[in-house]
Design a protein that fits this description.
- The complex is a heterodimer of chains A (416) and B (117).
- Chain A is mainly alpha-helical.
- Chain A contains 20 helices and 2 strands.
- Chain A has a domain at 6-90: Rna Polymerase Sigma Factor, Chain: A, CATH 1.10.1740.
- Chain A has helices at 6-28, 31-52, 58-80, 83-90, 111-122, 129-140, 145-151, 156-173, 185-204, 215-231, 236-249, 252-255, 275-291, 296-309, 318-329, 335-349, 351-359, 367-379, 383-395, 400-412; strands at residues 208-209, 398-399.
- In chain A, helix 6 packs across helix 9 (185-204) and helix 11 runs antiparallel to helix 13.
- Chain A starts with 5 loop residues before the first helix and ends with a helix.
- Mean pLDDT of chain A is 86; it is low at 87-110.
- Chain B is α+β, with helices and mostly antiparallel strands and 117 residues long.
- In chain B, the strands form 2 sheets. A 4-stranded antiparallel β-sheet of chain B has the order 2-5-1-6, covered by helices on one side.
- The mean pLDDT of chain B is 92.
- The chains are: A mainly alpha (416), B alpha+beta (117).
- At the A-B interface, loops of A face helix 2 and strand 6 of B.
Chain lengths: 416, 117
């Protein structure tokens, strides 16, 4: 039997926290009590496991211990006060109550459903988007308040307060703990995917700070994406989001120099791309194509799969990429997607055609709009205008690595 | 069961002409009947415009009376409905129906405490 260290327990914590909290929220009917009980169970694990060894099912052990602790705590508190209210809480009818409007009755499904319920609670539209992200990372990802605060560059006290307010709102406003009814599902579901993709994007191109990539956030988003894929394998967009994140993640090592400088897709050393992630992402994209129920995440994944297919940048099938962007833009205008489409158009029809597309977009506040314009102007030999556009891009990015990259491009323009 | 306050926010100014307001009031009445039939309806009230409001406050033990709403805004609460609902989703569904019928934003806010079904 190998020795169990605190870091082993920490690993189990990270892996099983969400599952345990999800079950306990159902059992105890309250997020705070659930978190406390799970915390208690892990404290017990740190004390016990080094001598007893890892139990056969660490998750099962944690959940059982947390349940016993939670119910104990609950009884202790009931003897003191609020006996009445507490009794109401233990009433199974309290958990997952059927709504007034004829939605499905509660279903005490397996653990799987508990996590799904918790995700929908964390991503409820009545919570602010930033709060949804923080709650999801805290309750499902098992990140500490300090880690979430660091990831979003806010003081820990601010993040702690945000989480407390959110949990209070869930309790006081009666945000239900259940998978939404069929009619609301598509909207609610988009909110969940958006939260996971937000986490990924914040990790992939940190909006501020010194480092371009925050590996921890990307990894967390991929983990949440895998969880969603496991919970909702029949939703093509869930699979699309996972594939998209895997394909983007596969280029992480090549996206920055050892010194932390940004390397554009065209200049990346493709030998450093993670072949395993690419294979997994592409397999999912092919699955999605066969299913033929396309959506924005699947199409974006397909665009990235085209890039992954090209052994060198020059081999990229840009026509295919333009066609995919056309498909992405068909249902509704989306200026950011249109900007990316213009980048592909530059490769097919040249920078002049792309520039007229870019100039028609109303994206003046977005640093990449100016960066892409700058690059097109540079390729057209209009250096003075390119310089202005680089300046505009530099002024609008909070990320140090991106700013350095733009500065290098700016100083490379024309005679120094 | 919880109780929720559904407040209807309306812009300042004259109400829409009867040919517009008539159908809106009919639609609102229909939602109320649905609420009653579902056992969700508790109380409804409509308010006079904020120009009819008076503020009372106590300063140094004296009650001061002043004209006007306490908070000046572009919108004011024109009326409200109190409902009982199992949870926020159920309350929001009523809010959605009211907003659609009344063509105005609805704020949904929980009352403190739980209530008997």
């Amino acid at each position: 039997m190998s020795a169990i260290s605190a870091s082993d327990v920490e690993r189990v914590f990270r892996q099983e926290y969400g599952r345990a909290v999800a079950v306990l929220v159902r059992v105890l009917g309250d997020i705070d009590s659930a978190e406390e009980a799970v915390q208690d169970a892990f404290t017990e694990a740190v004390r016990r496991w080094p001598s007893t060894g890892l139990p056969p099912s660490p998750a099962g052990w944690i959940i059982t211990t947390a349940r016993n602790r939670g119910i104990d705590r609950f009884r202790r508190e009931s003897t003191r006060q609020e006996r009445h209210a507490q009794a109401a809480l233990l009433d199974p009818g309290h958990l997952g109550h059927p709504g007034d409007l004829g939605d499905e009755p509660s279903q005490d499904g397996p653990v799987r459903d508990d996590r799904l319920r918790l995700i929908f609670t964390c991503c409820h539209p009545s919570l602010a988007p930033g709060t949804r992200v923080a709650l999801t990372l805290r309750l499902l990802g098992g990140l500490t308040t300090a880690e979430i605060a660091r990831a979003f560059l806010v003081p820990e006290a601010t993040m702690a307060q945000r989480l407390v307010r959110a949990k209070n709102k869930i309790r006081d406003a009666g945000i239900p703990y259940r998978v939404p009814a069929e009619a609301e599902l598509p909207d609610r579901f988009r909110a969940v995917l958006a939260v996971v993709y937000l986490v990924f994007n914040e990790g992939y191109a940190a909006s501020s700070g010194d480092r371009l990539v925050r590996e921890d956030l990307c990894a967390e988003a991929v983990r949440l994406g895998r969880l969603l894929a496991e919970l909702m394998p029949d939703e093509p967009e869930v699979m699309g989001l996972l594939a998209l994140m895997l394909l983007l993640e596969s280029r992480r090592a090549a996206r920055t120099t050892p010194g932390g400088d940004l390397v554009l897709l065209a200049d990346q050393d493709r030998g450093r791309w993670d072949r395993e992630l690419i294979a997994e992402g592409q397999a999912i994209v092919r699955q999605c194509l066969r299913r033929d129920r396309p959506g924005p995440y699947q199409i974006q994944a397909a665009i990235n799969a085209v890039h992954s297919d090209a052994p060198t940048a020059a081999d990229t099938d840009w026509r295919q990429i333009v066609a995919l962007y056309d498909q992405l833009l068909a249902p509704a205008p989306n200026p950011v997607a249109a900007l990316n489409r213009a980048v592909a158009v530059a490769e097919v029809d040249g920078p002049q055609a792309a520039l007229s597309l870019v100039d028609a977009l109303d994206l003046g506040g977005y640093h990449l709009f100016h960066a892409i314009r700058a690059d097109l102007l540079r390729r057209l030999g209009r250096d003075a205008e390119a310089a202005q556009a680089y300046e505009a891009a530099i002024a609008r990015t909070g990320n140090t690595a991106e700013r350095d990259f733009l500065r290098r491009n700016l100083s490379a323009l024309g005679p120094a | 069961m919880k109780q929720y306050l559904l407040s209807m926010y309306q812009p300042h100014g004259d109400p829409p002409p009867p040919e517009v307001l008539g159908p809106i009031m009919r639609d609102l009445e229909a939602v109320h009947q649905e609420m009653e039939a579902a056992g969700a309806w508790v109380f409804t009230s409509r308010l006079h415009p904020t120009s009819s409001a008076t503020v009372v406050r106590v300063e140094d033990g004296e009650a001061l009376i002043t004209d006007g709403p306490y908070i000046e805004g572009k919108e004011h609460i024109g009326g409200f409905v109190v409902i009982r609902a199992a949870d926020l989703d159920a309350a929001l569904e009523w809010g959605r129906r009211l907003a659609r019928a009344g063509t105005l934003p609805i704020e949904v806010r929980p009352f403190l405490g739980e209530y008997e079904a």
